[in-house]
């Protein structure tokens, strides 16, 4: 019997301190609280494993929050529980997100022992003033120590997250960060532009008023976007998604799975999942989550379950797939939905090809460079009435 493919996302909601721009589900907690969460999460993993006996887990992503605020032993315990409860492929890509200020020798040893083979560092910037403005707990020096530690312990697949559009950031300071990181030769770099979300201290500070002057203006922002592409290309990084770059063959398998519609199961408070045309969210209220009695009937675990109809599935397929530089596969679309992509989206495809925002190179329909710059506008065209 051939097994279905599944990706796992494991959410750890703890951080040492809340960053000023952050709107993720994360908060600080003491060791007692963390211990209780790990126990509850382990119960959830065991209960869910029973429902996915015919799936092969091809990738695992432990994210947050900051998963490395947990002790190494707890990280090992979580991974052991995953392996006991799910069938994990021997070559699975297993990533842990790591804040450089939270890594020690003992922790990295446990991470290695847990079979985790990819580390994602949330560096964001190499300039102290910018890190401070973000409210990050680490320094660039601290990042370098953590990065070297990961290399010493044999990690050969490392991602570094970077951000542009930060307070105090200039074109030159951004170039410095890019150059410093490229010289370290991580296998993968994610480069996002800061989004100031309502409800964060950042929004109150920089959302309007005089302090907005500390942010790069629109022209500088556009230049940073162009510089990212140019500098990373010069250093041998291929852009394979709107904001993601990798050395050849080092693209993040977990994220590619997500963008190409592979089923994924979210575990832990507030995590989301998408399996068999159903999208669902684990209870996001921490107190409620902790009070759920984990059992094989996972209905109480979810705060919402949405059945996606064919139309919604097609839209999702296009929105996510068009983020990839290679684009969406006409073959995969036709196979998945039993109808030709060019029939369903005839008007949109013709129009965007005519405007040179898209191009078709069989079997892939992709955004051109101009289309990628205007991706939100092009993608909104693919909403079906
Ligand atoms: S480390 Fe990440 S998840 Fe934690 S508060 Fe900062 S931005 Fe949010």
From TrEMBL:
Keywords: 4Fe-4S, Chaperone, Cytoplasm, Heme, Iron, Iron-sulfur, Metal-binding, S-adenosyl-L-methionine. Coiled coil: none annotated. It is found in: Cytoplasm. It holds the Pfam family HemN_C. Belongs to the anaerobic coproporphyrinogen-III oxidase family. HemW subfamily. SMART domains: Elp3. The keyword Iron-sulfur applies. GO terms for biological process: porphyrin-containing compound biosynthetic process. It comes from the Bacteria. This is Heme chaperone HemW. One of its GO terms (cellular component) is cytoplasm. GO terms for molecular function: 4 iron, 4 sulfur cluster binding; coproporphyrinogen oxidase activity; metal ion binding. Residues 1-238 form the Radical SAM core domain. Probably acts as a heme chaperone, transferring heme to an unknown acceptor. Binds one molecule of heme per monomer, possibly covalently. Binds 1 [4Fe-4S] cluster. The cluster is coordinated with 3 cysteines and an exchangeable S-adenosyl-L-methionine. InterPro entries: Aldolase_TIM, Coproporphyrinogen-III_oxidase, Elp3/MiaA/NifB-like_rSAM, HemN_C, HemW-like, rSAM, rSAM_sf. NCBIfam families: hemN_rel.
């Amino acid at each position: 019997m051939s097994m279905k493919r599944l990706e796992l996302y494991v959410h750890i909601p703890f951080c040492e301190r809340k960053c000023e721009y952050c709107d993720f589900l994360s908060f600080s907690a003491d060791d007692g609280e963390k211990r209780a969460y790990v126990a509850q999460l382990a119960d959830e993993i065991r209960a869910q494993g029973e429902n996915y006996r015919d799936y092969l887990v091809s990738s695992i992503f432990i994210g947050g929050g900051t998963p490395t605020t947990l002790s190494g032993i707890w990280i090992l315990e979580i991974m052991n529980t995953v392996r006991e409860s799910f069938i994990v492929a021997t070559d699975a890509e297993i990533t842990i997100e790591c804040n450089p200020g939270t890594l020690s020798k003992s922790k990295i040893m446990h991470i290695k022992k847990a079979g985790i083979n990819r580390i994602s560092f949330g560096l964001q910037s190499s300039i102290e003033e910018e890190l401070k403005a973000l409210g990050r707990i680490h320094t660039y020096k601290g990042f370098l120590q953590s990065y070297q530690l990961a290399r010493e312990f044999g990690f050969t697949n490392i991602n570094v997250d970077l951000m542009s559009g930060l307070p105090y950031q200039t074109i030159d300071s951004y170039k410095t960060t890019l150059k410093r990181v490229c010289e370290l030769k991580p296998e993968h770099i994610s480069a996002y532009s800061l989004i100031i979300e309502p409800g964060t201290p950042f929004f109150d500070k920089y959302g309007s008023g005089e302090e907005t002057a500390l942010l790069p203006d629109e022209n500088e922002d556009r230049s940073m976007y162009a510089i990212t592409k140019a500098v990373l290309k010069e250093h041998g990084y291929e852009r394979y998604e709107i904001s993601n770059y990798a050395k050849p063959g080092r693209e993040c398998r977990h994220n590619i799975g997500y963008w190409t519609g592979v089923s994924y199961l979210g575990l832990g408070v507030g995590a989301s999942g998408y399996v068999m045309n159903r999208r669902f969210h684990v209870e996001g209220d921490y107190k409620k989550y902790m009070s759920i009695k984990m059992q094989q009937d996972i209905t109480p675990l979810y705060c919402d379950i949405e059945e996606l109809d064919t139309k919604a599935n097609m839209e999702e397929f296009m929105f996510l797939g068009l983020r990839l530089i290679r684009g969406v596969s006409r073959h995969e679309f036709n196979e998945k939905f039993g109808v030709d992509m060019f029939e369903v989206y005839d008007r949109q495809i013709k129009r965007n090809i005519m405007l040179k925002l898209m191009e078709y190179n069989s079997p892939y329909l992709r955004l051109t460079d101009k289309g990628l710059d205007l991706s939100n506008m092009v993608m909104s065209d693919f909403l079906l009435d």
